[in-house]
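pasting input
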Amino acid sequence: SYVLTQPPSVSVAPGKTARITCGGNNIGSKSVHWYQQKPGQAPVLVVYDDSDRPSGIPERFSDSNSGNTATLTISRVEAGDEADYYCQVWDSSSDHVVFGGGTKLTVL
Amino acid sequence: QVQLVQSGAEVKKPGASVKVSCKASGYTFPPYDINWVRQATGQGLEWMGWLNPNNGDTGYAQKFQGRVTMTRITSITTAYMELSSLRSGDTAVYYCARVRADGSFDYWGQGTLVTVSS
């Protein structure tokens, strides 16, 4: 089955840039979607289909996807960005949705 | 506005079944698929399966095959997820989510806590 690998944690100072990776075999050929989840809340879609953003999501959120790694980039990080972040793809070989294990973003 | 409103928390004994509902409003129920995702305390997101509200077609994660059933009643724009033979490891928050054509989950329910305990 298809596996997505994320680092358990990433730390960044306010105003700096956070990068959260999502590794998967030839993930560059897939559409990757990213979710933000704060404690006690449902996940929220922040980036979809390779760098599109739902309305209300700031331009500070973007992603890139090539080869075996997709990366969510959060520019000018704010305290309110502290959350868990998950990547997600559709694996056509198994007809399954796959989530990464999640990355806890800590704003120092 | 688009909303998915789920049923309330449940406490079940091992071996029992639970049925969680997800009421959709603010959009046309088909053609968007509804997916179910669960999350144990302190753990990541785990996909369970999908439901096509238009024709009732379903697809389940291999892990839940034989234990999960996803259904809908289109007249009341409500989807259901039933999980049987519950065990303690099924204790989790269960979410429904609307799926866009590109496979992203753009709207989520508020979550339903299912506790399995003797």
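fyi The mean pLDDT of chain A is 95.
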